[in-house]
Design a protein that fits this description.
By secondary structure, this protein is α/β, with parallel strands linked by helices. It has ten helices and nine strands.
Length: 335
Amino acid sequence: MSNEVPGRRPTRVVRITRFVITLLVILLLMVCASEATETPGTAGTVEPPRATDTTKALGPVNTPQTVGAVDTTEPPKPPGPEPTFPFDEYVLTYLEYKPGTVMEIMQTQATGPAPCVMILHGYRVETTFYFPLAQAVAGRDAVVFMPDWNDTLPSDDDPRTTTVTDGLDDIADAIRFIRLYAGRYGADAERIVVVGHSLGAVVGMTTMLAGDQFGTEAFPREVSALPDAYVSLDGVVPFRELLWDADLRRLYDEDPGTWGKINPDTYLRAAGARAGVEFRFFVATLDFAETQSMAERMSELGYKTSVERIDVDHMQAAEPQPETVEAIAELAHAR
């Protein structure tokens, strides 16, 4: 029963109370209606840019090749999403595969797992210089990985002996990254072809022979860091002859033991030939006879080798020449 007296108007206090209650109910209804129409989590924020239609759906983490138990903990990633850029019909992905060291990945929209090709840049050459070669190889149904690696060599100003192997550690880590995570980029890490230009060919060949001896704690050392095939683009031995600077040659002569850590000859006999592994050498400006002599010595040890001359200059050897692209594609798809 109402407490109001019949025939009398409500007091001023009662009217104000009713007005306040009515106003609160209206405000509550307006808030509920607003929340029902908004997308959760977007209020007051700017929606991030979406990937373009050219980006490729990335597959699951690849089953790693191992010689024991492996910790499959995620590798370090840069803050925010991995940026992916359309490159005509190609996709270029830029990421940090370990703290402070980056990698670029070139791929097409091809379906199905593709073999892996890793291009190693020459001394002080930016990875962007190798984009045309990467596009040509990716166009042959391969996923191309281009890691940056420390190509600093010992000098009078910085004579640290570890400098020689810093780059080999970077390359071994890059191979282990590919072994573990290639599946995310539509690649099959069962086969990795390493392609090296100039000094990159030297460290690539050393990695072919002794990759498991190098690497950091960024990835499990139980994961194989040995590639499965190799292509040299005007850059192998004799290693001392590749040292273009008189001071570098002097430092080499003063401490050949330290420099031997990067020299493929150091590991050639000890490594032993692995079944199905092939080495192909393309010579542009280096001594063809010396390269051929080395290939013959490798053949005597059981390695499968070939040497071919290409009529271009040193830097053009890293551009997409028909014979080099064909060789890389052939090795990538060999089983």
